[in-house]
Amino acid sequence: MKQGHCLCGEVTLSIPDVSYDITVCHCHMCQRFFGSPFLSTSGLTSDQFQLSGQTSIQRYASSEWAERGFCKTCGSSLFYCSLNDKEYYFPIGLFEQLEGILTNEIFYNCKPEFYSLEGQTVKLTEEEFLTQLFKEEK
Ligand SMILES: [Zn+2]
Ligand SMILES: [Zn+2]
């Protein structure tokens, strides 16, 4: 397992020690919540990881379909949880030397023009991403 923790260390987390497909979300909500685009692990269900320090975790319902978590003490962003399938997406910054490959950029049309990421990625606009999501649910 790969260990991670928030800035103050009250919330700790362990996820499988595998190479992750890293997705970057450029949406405005992620930019506000994380202070920058959200570089995320692939989705994990709660039986695949351990999250401790529950009393220090504040959950925030950012939309009807998702909750975001942060540490009550230090304010570190901890996760994005999709309520539909109960999948958790963790910011890669919580972990040291996480292995992964940057594969996807979503809400690409929301990305500010003054930066871009290197590497070959699948880039989806908000519309393309939501169309794909909607198709999968059918
Ligand atoms: Zn903390
Ligand atoms: Zn986002």
UniProtKB/TrEMBL annotation:
Database matches in PROSITE patterns: CENP_V_GFA
Family, as annotated: Belongs to the Gfa family.
SUPFAM superfamilies xrefs: Mss4-like (SSF51316)
Domain of life: Bacteria
Domain CENP-V/GFA: 2-116
GO MF, one annotated term: carbon-sulfur lyase activity
Organism: Enterococcus florum
Protein's name according to its UniProt entry: Aldehyde-activating protein
Record carries keyword Ribosomal protein: no
Gene3D superfamilies per record: glutathione-dependent formaldehyde- activating enzyme (gfa)
Key words of the record: Lyase, Metal-binding, Zinc
